[in-house]
Amino acid sequence: MAHQVGFDEARTTMKKYREDQIRDSDLIVSLWEDVVADKCNRLGDELWLVYEQVCTSALDCQRFDIAEDCIASLDIKFPKSIRVRRLQGMFHEAKEEFSEAEEEYKSILEKDETNMYARKRQVATLKARNKIAEAIQKLNEYLKSFMTDYEAWNELCDLYLSQHDYSNAAFCLEELLMSNPHNHLFHQKYAEIRYTQGGNDNMELARSYFAQAVKLNPNNLRALNGLFLSASNLAVTSSKGGKDKQLNLKYATWAAEQIQIKYQTQQPEAQFKDTKIQECLEKHLDSLQSA
Amino acid sequence: MARSQSHSLAHSVPSVTLVCLYNLFQSVPSVTLVETYCKGKNLVIAGYYQANENYSDNELNHVARTIGRKVQENFQDACLLMVDNRKVKVESVSQPYKIYTLRESGWKDSDRKNLSEDSISKEECLYALLKSGSQRQLCDFDNHFDDVKNDWRNLELNDLISRCT
To answer: What's the domain of life for this entry (chain B) (predicted)?
Structure first.
């Protein structure tokens, strides 16, 4: 896959993926194998970061040979390093050797009980074994000590969603919203949960939060879709009378217009016409008018 | 998975990939768009496929069953395809999914007939496509909602697949 890429380009790409935390393990493994590995002495001190990156990517792709080599090299350079031992634990996890992985993480925590990475890997191990209830419990305990870890709140939200426990998932998002009130993605996700829960109050909350997400980022198409759907839903089901229906119809129409403008201006004309967005939106709005 | 209404072939025509994990809310507008598109092309949604996040988990879950039922309401012979993650590898692909059909007692694993020559050539084609990295061109609705230029119809990729099989 990566044969045509030069060394410098590969190095820059890998660095970008590290900084932006992009997970494209296939590509990283390919860049390493085809381009970088033979010339890795040109990386200087960056080599150790690259080894770590390639190791985790190799584990994603079940390339245990590459992962093992990376860990061995890192171990020689940084003997007894907790960071390397975490990689060793992840190696066991990838091979589904969960007891060995658990041993590794326990011993890391004995040495350093504040190590958040090992604690999170313990949750990951439970998740991998499909022990979701225990993973939820463990993550809740973790968050009592590390309550500002927004990545963990997001993960806990997803665990609750997988169990269809929408109220607790919403609670997690509320924590995220309190600490990140300008993040349009959190507003959108919170709205989606409220929409899924259903009922008039939740639908109104959903509509408000979708609207806030759109206000924070007018390019958020998912939030526009959500605003359109929640307002449409309220226009039909709300028991608050005709005026409320008219208002919701107005919101839905506005959202539909924004969606259409987006598609019309950003999509090639042929694609826009063939996928019939306009027809879809118009049909939906017509059904609201007559409801 | 869409199928032409006027044909009764056992093979399906192109499929559309919806969304990944936890973003199930966005599957609502996605499915609506797909349905509208299908009507315009005289196609019908004939089935639903799913691959679970957990590598070892290839069981039908509540989501798959619910969506499957919805599809079945519009197309009686609807089927569910559950991808077996363990069988999808670049170096070999063999029967990477199970097919389920809806009976009175629920979704049941349908008997796969012995590998026909046709199935074998399809798997060889699949192997060739995976090896060349064609899967990286695939656009799902997540990609589409990130940037509407990303075409969930995957016309070029579907064309490549048709020429291959």
So the answer is: Eukaryota
Of B22, B133, B151, the CB nearest to A158: B22
A273 → chain B, closest CA residue = B37
Domain around B10? 2-159
Give the minimum alpha-carbon distance from B116 to chain A in angstroms, rounded to a whole number. Answer: 30
Q: How many domains does chain B have?
A: 1
Could you give the 3-state DSSP secondary structure of residue A227?
helix
Q: What is the ipTM of this complex?
A: 0.86
- Tell me whether residue B23 is in a domain: yes
Structural domains present in chain A: 1-79 (no CATH), 101-176 (1.25.40.10)
Instruction: Quote the minimal CA–CA distance from B2 to chain A in Å.
Output: 15
For A230-248, write each residue's pLDDT tens digit: 999 999 987 778 888 999 9
Q: Domain for residue B165, yes or no?
A: no
Which residues of chain A have a CB within 8 Å of the CB of B36?
A: 275-276, 279-280, 283
CA-nearest residue of chain B to A263?
B148
Determine, for residues A225 and B40 on separate chains, whether the beta-carbon distance falls below 8 Å: no
> For the whole model, what pTM was predicted?
0.89
Query: Does any CB of chain B come closer than 8 Å to the CB of residue A96?
Result: yes
